[in-house]
């Protein structure tokens, strides 16, 4: 099964981001119930022992609850002309600290961790080859939208399930962070 460690986005931020749905034509909008900030992608994992390794490593993490501070939306190129829309999350010291703790725990559990820069965000949709001026106007319009910060009290180990249109995410285990 495909696994990743993330922060599940809670209310009222979830609802504020969901208000963007339908604001740009041609977007396949992500279900707000699946909004999350990925901390560490583990990929395909099989075997009870590997799941126990993950559980032990994540259970040992001690960190305070995280305040997610949303920022303006942006776009990632996905290849094949597709683009991914997202809402940025500020790279605060506590969030970066938690990210490092999760990656260190997963390395100790013998997982290969991607070596790319951590860019915290919430994916909100995907679209194919939008007109650049239309996308630029959308980004400018929504960049000033005040989104509320939200405190996240736990880490979640998610399973990614591929669907016909988009993936869905199933929480497997939640790990409380200190308040």
TrEMBL record:
GO terms for molecular function: 2',3'-cyclic-nucleotide 3'-phosphodiesterase activity; RNA 2',3'-cyclic 3'-phosphodiesterase activity. It catalyses: a 3'-end 2',3'-cyclophospho-ribonucleotide-RNA + H2O = a 3'-end 2'-phospho-ribonucleotide-RNA + H(+). The active site is at 36 (proton donor), 121 (proton acceptor). A motif (HXTX 1) lies at residues 36-39. The keyword Hydrolase applies. Pfam families: 2_5_RNA_ligase2 (PF13563). Keywords: Hydrolase. Gene3D superfamilies: Cyclic phosphodiesterase. Its EC number is 3.1.4.58. This is RNA 2',3'-cyclic phosphodiesterase. The gene is thpR.
């Amino acid at each position: 099964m495909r696994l990743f460690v993330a922060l599940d986005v809670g209310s009222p931020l979830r609802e504020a981001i969901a208000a963007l749905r339908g604001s740009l034509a041609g977007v396949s909008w992500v279900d707000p119930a699946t909004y999350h900030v990925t901390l560490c992608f583990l990929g395909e994992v099989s075997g009870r022992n590997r799941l126990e390794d993950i559980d032990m490593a994540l259970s040992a993490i001690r960190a305070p609850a995280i305040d997610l501070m949303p920022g303006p939306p942006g776009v990632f190129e996905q290849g094949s002309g597709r683009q991914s829309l997202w809402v940025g999350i500020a790279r605060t010291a506590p969030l970066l600290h938690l990210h490092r703790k999760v990656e260190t725990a997963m390395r100790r559990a013998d997982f290969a961790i991607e070596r790319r820069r951590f860019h915290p965000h919430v994916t909100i949709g995907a679209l194919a080859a939008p007109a650049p001026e239309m996308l630029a106007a959308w980004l400018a319009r929504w960049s000033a939208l005040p989104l509320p910060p939200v405190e996240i009290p736990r880490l979640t180990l998610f399973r990614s399930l591929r669907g016909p249109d988009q993936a869905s995410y199933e929480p497997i285990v939640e790990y409380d962070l200190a308040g």
